[in-house]
């Protein structure tokens, strides 16, 4: 077989493209993979406005409407559960295409829906696409990106979700001018257009180098690594790390090889994850599930989906004021996610998560307290409490977005061993979507049972528990090659010391 152009410890001499172009290539790949998140965000944003017209046109009850709003996340469990095995079978790139196909069909079904069951079928199909997209985008980006910018690039899906939400709001505004029976159908149907753009864009994307190695395509894997690494030496080092993790000897340099047990790839993964995990894998799984649970159980979707209701309870009587405050929430969320994305590789995952969840706890406590005071003083205009409620909603969204929002996806896409990564990440996404659906479909009932202030104090308690969990269970992963991540897990106290050593060593090597 032909040689892949590399030998162990030897760099072949050939004309090399400027490395700045290589960084831009990795950047472009991350953007294209994150297009799936724009489609997801669009669906979230557009449903917030379309729901008003759907209720009027299809004569839905409040319960039917609440289920319609939140059921997408429950349906996405189907896609999340299948995404890991699918991406191991057909590859990361074509799994992204599959997600786009589900989005396209779901958007058309919802756009042409004539009754409640019809639109629920559309939500089901789109929900499968959501499950696929939320797992595969961060995994693909983490596997393509070099370690120095992996956190930054893997945060893109969260940014693009918020861009999609804003596009959904714009769609609501323009199509609301149409007759009721047409407006909401155009709002939902237009969501099929980004899916087509995604399918075309994917043609320019390379396959994940780690998936290629597992298929025995070492030459193709090196070409991708060479395009996305800062130096050729780094590309060779990354390839050797992947080969070592896949059980392939480093001295094998053929373009195409036969990987042992390739046909059984994916088999036994669930057993290694859930039945007989090593101490390190068990720690990784607990960390992944814990961070996904905490992200949603602390109440972010309650704020995003029900901001107008929250501001109404806080004392903003005018619908215009409620709408302006809700738009401000979206703007703050997007801006601070950009900030979090830019600093995740500088300050590290652990520091951002602890800072973020601490700020969320303080914001939720203040928000719950102010809403309780307003609720217990009906008929009075307590300007300080109204101001505190609005301000703490903003600070909650800001502190969430700087850490818990983007870092959750970065962290869980990079900590699993390569053989377990797709299925492990899919478990995290399944729990994330399940909690999101539960919060979205029960918040109104919860706020009636506990009062709205009590509901946010409950979320504050979850945030406090999450801070303790993050401090205890999550080691720092910044700058670590994916193939060495497993060494950070398994012994909690030892890992923190090891991280300090690893970071210190890394700084010395860089300078």
Give the low-confidence spans.
Answer: 1-5, 7-19, 497-511
Question: Which structural class do the helices and strands define?
Answer: mainly alpha
Number of helices: 20
* Domains (count): 2
Query: What is the fourth-level CATH superfamily of the largest domain?
Result: MFS general substrate transporter like domains
Specify the overall morphology.
Answer: globular
Q: How large, in whole angstroms, is the Cα Rg? A: 23 Å
Helical fraction equals over 70%
Question: End-to-end distance, in Å?
Answer: 40 Å
Task: Write down how many β-strands occur, each being a DSSP E stretch of 2 or more residues.
Answer: 0
Q: Given this structure, which CATH class of the largest domain is correct?
A: Mainly Alpha
Domain Major facilitator superfamily (MFS) profile: 29-478
GO molecular function: carbohydrate:proton symporter activity
Pfam families: Sugar_tr
Main location: membrane
